[in-house]
Write a structure and sequence with these properties.
about 450 residues; about 35% helix; single chain; 20 strands; six-stranded mixed β-sheet; 2 domains; disordered C terminus; UDP-N-acetylmuramoyl-L-alanine:D-glutamate ligase; eight-stranded mixed β-sheet; Rossmann fold; alpha/beta; 15 helices
């Protein structure tokens, strides 16, 4: 798992083009105390109602949650639900300037009724309608400029008519010409429309149906038939509680088992997988690494109810639990570190140049790690700490993360916003009360040659 930790630490921001069927999902949650006297059905006493983008919209939100700049291509109806869908996406930073409005079209709405974490009923309001030719031409005219800005393309097909065969083909063709990977979450029985894509990601039931094979056929036979049919580079079949399997022509099958602590709800897990595959490939990882990361993210997703967005901080925490050496960061990891620390409360302990493992250091670590509700970050203010010292600190369960000295204090301090700050001076712990104290302490520890910037 070490290579996954290294990959995470070097993640960078990326731009993704999401094209597909966008929905507006409503979750109506309550409790059931009685059966209706009018019919043998439960009566739901509503306690809460919330709405959010679904379908390709959930993919876009997942990608935005892991720091991607999302360019969205989709359609909406000339209705209130369409406006709400657009506004919610914009509120999460999704660029919806390439959305088209189709006056005869009803924005798809899925209403789920839930009691005691159990979905009782889903009511769909939708129109399966082909995208009109003039709107397709409008979108095709926008594609070149959007493709130029994108590092990866995600096609989220829910079979509602928006993704016409020609729109899919021209999107894949344009991406191939630009050297941009295309990840497809497919729908329907005809996978030939996705020919040329980089990765095709059906679930097991979709794969068997598209291959037109019975459940008695082996998954390997199904996968080989789909690879021949679709001519994609890789086929990733998600298999619910069995995990996922990766297939590539001429190569051995690779399985990734589920490692969830508890499976509560698989809703939206496929969107999580699609998002993390995009993150991995956009950052130059190979498909094996991408599948491993996506599988871990999906395991986190199914441990919670409903469509949820798995963050980089949550992925990092799970990777920490699998590989404790992942807790070591330097300034080149600032993007990953910024996401890791988001919304976290932690104490910061600054160690000066030449610090080694002493009883005083161990006491300080133990003392600060007992602060309830706070994690402990150690900043090693030494340009050349020994590997033995760093890895010994990393082996301590009380230390949650380690940051190595960087060149820019301004960058460092903008990333680190600790609840409490301390430094170890000899055998004593001294508390720092503001950013100025932090700068002063770092300067006094021998940072005269650094590019010291004032904090604004």
């Amino acid at each position: 798992m070490t290579h996954l930790a290294d990959a995470f630490q070097h993640f960078r921001p990326f731009t993704v083009l999401v094209i597909g069927d966008f929905f507006f999902d409503t979750y109506i949650t309550g409790r059931v105390k009685r059966i209706s006297p009018e019919a043998p059905v439960p009566v739901l006493e509503v306690l809460r109602q919330e709405s959010r983008p679904g379908g390709a919209g959930n993919v876009a939100l997942n990608l935005a949650a892991i720091g991607a700049h999302v360019l969205a291509i989709g359609r909406m109806g000339y209705d209130a639900e369409g406006q709400q869908l657009k506004h919610r996406l914009q509120a999460d930073g999704v660029d919806v300037s390439a959305f088209v409005i189709q006056s005869s079209y009803q924005t798809p709405v899925k209403r789920r009724f839930i009691a005691d974490s159990q979905q009782l009923l889903r009511v769909d309001f939708e129109t399966v309608e082909p995208l009109p030719f003039e709107l397709e031409e409008q979108l095709l005219s926008l594609l070149p400029s959007l493709m130029e800005r994108s590092q990866i393309v995600a096609i989220s097909d829910y079979g509602k008519g928006f993704l016409t065969r020609s729109l899919i083909a021209k999107t894949i063709q344009m991406a191939q010409s630009s050297g941009v990977p295309v990840i497809v979450d497919p729908k329907g029985l005809d996978f030939t429309k996705y020919r040329g894509a980089t990765v095709l990601k059906p679930n097991a039931s979709e794969a068997y149906a598209a291959a037109n094979m019975s459940s008695s056929s082996s998954l390997d036979e199904v996968a080989q038939h789909l690879l021949d049919l679709s001519r994609v580079d890789q086929l990733l079949i998600t298999r619910s509680e069995a995990g996922m399997s990766l297939f590539e022509s001429g190569k051995a099958r690779k399985d990734f088992p589920v490692r969830s602590r508890e499976v509560k709800d698989v809703t939206g897990a496929g969107d999580t997988v699609l998002s993390f595959i995009c993150l991995a490939l956009a950052n130059g990882l190979d498909m094996d690494q991408a599948a491993q990361l996506a599988n871990i993210a999906a395991c986190i997703s199914v441990e919670r109810l409903g469509c949820v967005q798995v963050t980089l901080a949550e992925l990092a925490q799970r990777l920490f639990e699998m590989n404790r050496n992942m807790k070591i960061f330097d300034e080149s990891h600032s993007y990953a570190l910024r996401h890791l620390l988001k919304d976290k409360s932690y104490s910061l302990l600054i160690l000066q140049h030449g610090q080694c493992v002493t009883n005083a250091l161990l006491r300080a670590v133990k003392q600060l790690s007992t602060v309830e509700g706070h994690q402990l970050m150690v900043y090693i203010n030494d340009a050349y700490p020994t590997d033995e010292f760093v890895h010994l600190l990393a082996s301590l369960n009380e230390v949650d993360m380690i940051v190595l000295q960087g060149e820019s204090l301004k960058n460092l301090c903008s990333i680190m916003n600790p609840y409490e700050m301390y430094c170890l001076e000899g055998d004593e712990i001294r508390q720092l009360h503001q950013a100025a104290d932090l700068l002063s302490t770092l300067r006094s520890y021998g940072l005269k040659n650094q590019k010291i910037s004032t904090l604004s």
